[in-house]
Amino acid sequence: MSRDRTQREDYTTPLRRLLIGILCLCLAAMFLVWRIDNPRVERFRAQVVDRFVPNMDWAMAPVTGTIKLLRDFQSYQRLAEQNQELRSELRQMRAWKEAALQLEQENARLLDLNNVRLDPRLTFITGVVMADSGSPFRQSVLLNVGARDGIQDGWAAMDGIGLVGRISGTGRNTARVILLTDTAMAVPATIQPSGQTALVTGDNTAAPVLNFLENSDLVRPGDRVISSGDGSVFPAGLLIGQVAQDPSGRLRVRLSADYERLEFLRVLRHHGTEVISDSGGLVVPAPDATTPRARPENLDELAQGEDDNG
Amino acid sequence: MASGQRARVWLMRGTFSLLVLIIMFFQLLPLETQPRQWAPPDLIMGLAFVWALRRPDYVPAFLLATLLLLSDLLFQRPPGLMALLIILACEILKVRILSNRETTFMAEWIEVALAIAAVTALNRVVLNLTGVAQASLTLTMIQMIMTIGIYPILIAFSQTVLGVRKLTPVEADAIGNR
Q1: Which CATH number fits domain A124-268: 3.90.1300.10, 1.10.260.40, 3.20.20.70, 2.40.10.340?
Q2: Pairwise CB contact (< 8 Å): A136 & B173
Q3: How confident is the model over B19-53, as pLDDT tens digits?
Q4: From the CA of A157, how many Å to the nearest CA of chain B?
Q5: Are residues B69 and A52 in contact, defined by beta-carbon separation less than 8 angstroms?
Q6: How many angstroms away from the CA of A269 is the closest CA of chain B?
Q7: Is the ipTM of this complex over 0.95?
Q8: Signed CA dihedral, A61, A66, A67, A69: sign only
């Protein structure tokens, strides 16, 4: 008898039911609002992450370090063997370095002859990877630079070599980078040397798929994949990786960036790609460019450019 | 006596929150930046079920909702959906299992396994209906099976290390009459 009473008191009082009902409604409402007004809720999410994750940073770095150390310990056993390999590789590298130096000099001379100026606006901010997405279904990392450092959504993130992902969601002190391997990622790319354009689409595996290739016969495994700058997503010419073929014959991209060790990422400041919309008009910014445009360096130059075109 | 009980309840609520935060912390560590072939169990869901079925007063729905919502936000999941499903599952499990105290371990495990499967399935169905892109089915299934598999371990851990046990009828009456 008493048992029944306590249960009724504990678990089934109408007030409790009502409260839980309200709670569930709130959660359902939150999901629906997220579905309907995604950017606002994602901004809220970025703020929560921004508030929460940096607090754990003091512990995260040492724990990550320790776990990595323990993992590396296994590889120490093969140290001698590795050393040998490295030595022989180093010898090869020396030869390559010599070649590279010569080529660099040649390149510098040629650039000088052509009076080429590399895009001076392509500068970068380096951030440290603080956390990953925490879920096996999403591929993203959190950087310790954010809106405070001028990071904007849509900018490209690279490690030293290749493209890693795209900034999506910035808090004050943190920014999330959606990696190329995430299912939500698609990057327009050009395949060299054939010049074919394709879309590099992540599918939650280590090697993203090459989609929308016009003529896959022209593409061979080993070709370089670089960003094409189409759709103003990224600046053109960033190295993504190399074409590879998986056992089922699908073309994939073996990424150049070292995804096993993402520690420092460079975020490229990107101020939109200039596109030519019609044959005879002015060179104008893309109509849907979201990033703010850089100011012209001086007004005379701008005016002169307009006169020439008009 | 009563104040001691209450202090203990709050202490255990704190412990639960701490445990969940620690799990989140370890999941967020940037160790696996490569896509994985397998998915780890959803420890937070497992713990929520274990605790709610032993001592529901240690995991009040509001605390659970807050923690789950936080994990939704941190883990890039659709906010609110998993939290909602897990809380509903918790409530249903409580009604079904706590109503008869003599539930054996196997019966509880089966009920919880069904609940976990239902949460996973409903999550996928709702995401499908609302047209949200979702992860591959294999990963989700792996995670579901791992969560079911780890449930007894979570029980053992909670019972031996943290002393989260079912109340004996005498204790229950003592607390109920408080």
Answers
A1: 2.40.10.340
A2: no
A3: 999 998 888 887 777 777 788 888 999 999 999 88
A4: 14
A5: no
A6: 23
A7: no
A8: positive
